Every structure is written in structure tokens, then in C-alpha cells.
Amino acid sequence: MKTRQIKDHLYAQVARIGKAMASPKRLELLEMLCQGEFSVEHLAAQTSMSVRLVSAHLKELKMAQLVRTRRAGTYIYYRLADTGVADLWVALRVAAEGHLSELREAKTGLVDRGEEIAALDGAQLMSWAKLGKVIVLDVRPQPEYAAGHLPYARSLPLDDIKRGSVALPKNRPIVTYCRGPFCLMAKEAVGVLTRGGYRASRFESGVAEWRSQGLPVVKD
Amino acid sequence: MKTRQIKDHLYAQVARIGKAMASPKRLELLEMLCQGEFSVEHLAAQTSMSVRLVSAHLKELKMAQLVRTRRAGTYIYYRLADTGVADLWVALRVAAEGHLSELREAKTGLVDRGEEIAALDGAQLMSWAKLGKVIVLDVRPQPEYAAGHLPYARSLPLDDIKRGSVALPKNRPIVTYCRGPFCLMAKEAVGVLTRGGYRASRFESGVAEWRSQGLPVVKD
DNA sequence: TCTTTATTCCAATACTCGTTGGAATAATGT
DNA sequence: ACATTATTCCAACGAGTATTGGAATAAAGA
């Protein structure tokens, strides 16, 4: 029966993508790459992995055609093949949140802490930001902000906030966001800002989630 | 650093879903389960796998909480945990088609053959079917049709078509569909019908693709 | 040319996964 | 109670994967 061979081949191809997304480390790399393009070294530093290991995992992702590379001098920069890859990462994460009770527990127990999360939808946040009702802060490192950020958001990296170099009006509520639901930078920023007398809360989405909902991402 | 442990745990949870979808056999089982609920034995027969192997793969899917079971006598019926799982399968397949050139080649070379594919969108097909401009045929086995089918579609299993028990008007175009892009039943049906003097073409989507586009699925 | 830096390749390790055969469960019917 | 049927569990093998160390590329600068 030739039909079986054809089917086996087709499913095997799809499974290649699945295999690429079957490793926690590779998923973390993919989420990083949703923020922009980075060198192997930088990815290794951000994910607490050895350079060699990052290289090996990126090789897998490249063979699955999920990422592309660009050479600049001695550096090699990796980026997502297209925004569809980011959508796939978001879809997988959402599915995991929906299905795995352990993940929900881990998130509610460790990442969230009561009032820190502002559970509002993106369109509403954007309209408030447009009117100046809230200040939206992108607390990621500046290169990631430059690669693309939420509309009306201003860049104020977490490191700067920690250093105390915050000059914001205290009468308006502040909403922070970072790389996404699994990133803890925005949470940490809320902690520092709240102690400093600001009314701060966290928005869970990152640019990948934002874009996957069809909302516009700004690059300047 | 505790942050690392939290992150490792979060990504590991998502990777559980990825791992579950990293096997060709499991993907084939998932696609079958998009058509309805089935016993282990039936799934084994449909996928040319041994019962034991199907059982082992279903166990993996169950541990990832992608499927649920129901006992009826000596049979145990498996079904998807919810329609979100079907959406995830569709999303993964679409991503694979977009990224893997080998998959595109395999599909255009083996599955498709020129005019057999009707490249029209679902909403248009449905409006034509409603007006009676086309006859939409669900060529899957009848239990799968009963579990949910496209609106205005009538059931005519491929086996019946092969047996020659076709009583359809020859003046109207026929559109066949089956389990999805990787299923070859609709293609085979088009071949038989065309030889019998009908104007038949294939619609690539199955109920999972249909539903994931927000279109209604009928159950009677 | 020689050195430096970023990255990849190769080899070796422990580990996990897919698959199969034979035995064990769990419900059904006699 | 016994045999039957559908399914799962256990053990085992080979194949594939993750990770690490050391060596090899490839571009840049002295």
C-alpha cells in the first residue's frame, strides 16, 4: 500500500516542527527570538545556557526552518523565520495553559501575586494609553524595545528602574510589560515601582502575544 | 537564583505538549480523534499500527491531557480533551506547510493532481451548497459523519462510492471532503466519480480545519 | 602572518523514546 | 467460576536526544 508511505511521510514532516518545540530550552530560545534578533552569545547569557548548547539547539531550530541566520563580522544573528513562528509559540503556550493544571498552578503560585496582574484586554489598554490615562512601560532591555514594541509604550528597562532612575508622574497608573507571561521582569518592575510610591500593575502579554491577536506593533 | 527554576519549570510544562506532538504516529492519532471518538482497536486499524503501540501513544497523549477516555463495556473510547486540541493540530500542520519546503513538495507531488483541488474558501462553498449549486459529499465512514460534518453535506462513504452505489444528479458539480489535507479518501472519491461521468473536485479541509476557521459544524 | 573572538563540529556520555513480545486487568457473557 | 475480548502493564532492545569538553572554522584586527 503506497498510501501508508505517503501518510507516514506527511506526518513525519509535521512532527519535525513538533520535535523542534519539544524541548524547554528551545522554547525559551524561541520566546527570546520573538523579541528580536540576537547573537548566540547573547542568547546564551539570557537563558543561562552554555554557548555550545545554545548553538546546538539553534541548529535544531534551523533544521526545522523555524529560524534564520545573518552574519555580521564574527557574530551570527538568529531571528525567527517569520511571525508565524511566534504565533505557533503563543498557540502552544496557550494550549499548555489551558490543558495542564500544573502549569496554571505554577503560574498563579509563583508568577502572579494577587493584584499585580491587570487583567484587561489589549485593545482597551491601547485606547487608555492613547488618551494618556495610563503610562505603558516596556521594561525590556532597550534593543528589544527598538526591535518592536506596543503602541504608546515608552522604554524604561528594568535595570534603570532598579537603579532608581525613574522620572514619572505619580498621579497616573503605570502598566508594565516585558517578554510575555513567562518573563518575570515586569513583575519585578511592579514591585520596585510600588515600593517607590507608584500605582503600577503588570500586563501579561509581550509583543508576540500582542501581534498574534492582530494588534499593531510599532518599530521606530 | 530562583527565577531560573521557575522559568525552567514553566517551559518544561509547555514542552510536555510539544513532546506529545513530536511523533508522527501521535499526530495521526490526533487527526483521527478530530473526526470523533474511537476505540483503541479502531484507531489501530485506521492507522495501521498495533493495538499495543496505539495504546502506548494514547497514554502519552493522555498524560499531556490532550485526550480523555470513556469506558463502555470492554471498549475504551478516546476523544480530544476539547476543540482547542484540534486547533493546535491544525496550527501545527499549517506552520509545517508554510515552513517545510519538503512538505509542500510532497503534497503537490503526491496528494494533489492538478484540477482535483478546488481552491475556494469555506464560506463560499457553504453559500453555494446552501443554494444547491454544488453537492457537498462527506466521504468518510458514516460514524464520523454522524459525529459532526460540514453544513449541507450529505454522507456518502468512499466504500459505497467504490461499490458503485452512487445515485446523484450528473448536472451539478460535486465537491468531496474527508478528514483533512493529509487524508486521501476525498481524492480517491474524485477519481472514481470522475470516471463515472461526474464533475467532481476535492475540498481540502476537514471538520477540524473548518471549525478552526470559526465556521459551524453540524451534528444530527 | 599571527592572534583573537564568535561560532560550529566531533566524539563520548547518560538519558529518553519508539517499538515489540508476553503477561496482567477489567468488564462481558455462558 | 470460566472463557472471551479489549486494553494496559512490564521488560527489553535499538535508536535517537541532551549535554559537555576539546578541537576546528571563519571573520576581524594587529
Task: Characterize this entry briefly.
Chain A has helices spanning 2-20, 24-33, 40-47, 51-63, 83-99, 101-111, 122-131, 142-147, 158-163, 185-195, 207-212; strands spanning 38-39, 67-72, 75-80, 135-138, 153-155, 174-177, 200-202.
Could you characterize the architecture of this molecule?
The structure is a homodimer of 220-residue chains. Chain A is α/β, with parallel strands linked by helices and 220 residues long. In chain A, a hairpin with a 2-residue loop joins strand 2 and strand 3 (75-80). The longest helix of chain A is centred in the N-terminal third of the chain and has 19 residues, at 2-20. In chain A, helix 3 (40-47) crosses helix 4 (51-63). Chain A has a four-stranded parallel sheet, with helices on one face. In chain A, strands 1-3-2 form a three-stranded antiparallel sheet. Chain A folds into two domains: 3-87, Arc Repressor Mutant, subunit A (Orthogonal Bundle), CATH 1.10.10.10; 110-212, Oxidized Rhodanese, domain 1 (3-Layer(aba) Sandwich). Chain A is built from eleven helices and seven strands. The mean pLDDT of chain A is 91. Chains A and B meet through helix 1, helix 2, helix 5 and helix 6 of A and helix 1, helix 2, helix 5 and helix 6 of B. The first copy, chain A, binds a DNA duplex (30 and 30 nucleotides) through helix 4.
